[in-house]
Design brief:
263 residues, TIM Barrel, globular
């Protein structure tokens, strides 16, 4: 069964010169569908443009990442609302909280997150969520809105067991990236992925970031691409005691249902 990459930043400038080749390599590697992350007003518009240019293969999200929360205005909200009406925009976000670097003030992050939760509810679209070093505030805001929001995924999960089970208790989905391949920071995930039920687990590259560290050979350019998703899938499958085919089948089916992707 073909793979689905639920998070790739294909609007990143590193893909401008060779996107066609990137998509060809992804297809050859068995990655049939890619959700392009929209993480700013401009990025969300660009993600939708890519989805329209590659129908059935690329799909988009529309949101404002917490790093850009200080730029969230009424005009931004109007744009996101309009984008979320588009069929090719499959989810609201990337949105959430990131206290790791505090590129935007925390109050601004919480405001933008709350407004985008409301937009997702209004549009009836799933939520594509980000959290780093902000678990308590993040989970408290989700709990307060959980009876009103629909499907939601914590993408690029890197947290601990308590955080994972807080999310699972809220019936959230979990996205796993090549972070699990990082022997410095990701070893704990190799045990935690066993706790994620089939039907709640999805996989992603977060390209061009998070190139799996244990790939051999590594690409000389150090850029992550969707074509490396099979490597992540094999690692997660091994840690869960599944075959790569089993892992591919249930994560792809979950992703297609979650984002309402066409067959």
């Amino acid at each position: 069964m073909p793979l689905v990459d639920i998070g790739a930043n294909l609007t990143h400038e590193s893909f401008r010169h060779d996107l066609a080749a990137v998509l060809a390599r992804a297809g050859a590697a068995g990655v049939a569908q890619i959700v392009v992350t929209g993480a700013s007003a401009e990025g969300a518009e660009a993600a939708l443009a890519l989805a329209r240019a590659h129908p059935g293969v690329l799909h988009a999200t529309a949101g404002v990442h917490p790093h850009h929360a200080a730029d969230y205005t009424a005009e931004t909200e109007d744009l996101l609302r309009a984008l979320l009406r588009e069929p090719d925009v499959r989810a609201a976000g990337e949105t959430g909280l990131d206290y790791h670097r505090d590129y935007s003030p925390r109050e601004a992050q919480r405001f933008a997150f709350e407004r985008q939760l409301a937009l997702g509810i209004e549009a009836g679209k799933p939520l594509f969520l980000h959290q780093r070093d902000a678990h308590e505030d993040f989970v408290a805001m989700l709990r307060a809105a959980r009876d009103r929001i629909g499907r939601a995924v914590v993408h690029c999960f890197t947290g601990d067991r308590r955080e994972l089970h807080d999310y699972l208790d809220l019936d959230l989905h979990i996205g796993i990236t090549g972070w699990i391949c990082d022997e410095r920071r990701g070893l704990h995930l190799r045990e935690l992925v066993r706790d994620i039920p089939a039907g709640r687990l999805m996989i992603e590259t977060d390209a061009p970031y998070l190139l799996p560290r244990n790939m051999v050979p590594k690409p000389s350019h150090r850029r992550n691409e969707p074509c490396f998703l099979p490597h992540i899938a094999a690692e997660v499958a091994r840690d869960r005691g599944e075959s790569p085919a089993q892992l591919t089948a249930h994560t792809a089916a979950t992703a297609r249902e979650f984002f309402a992707l066409p067959d």
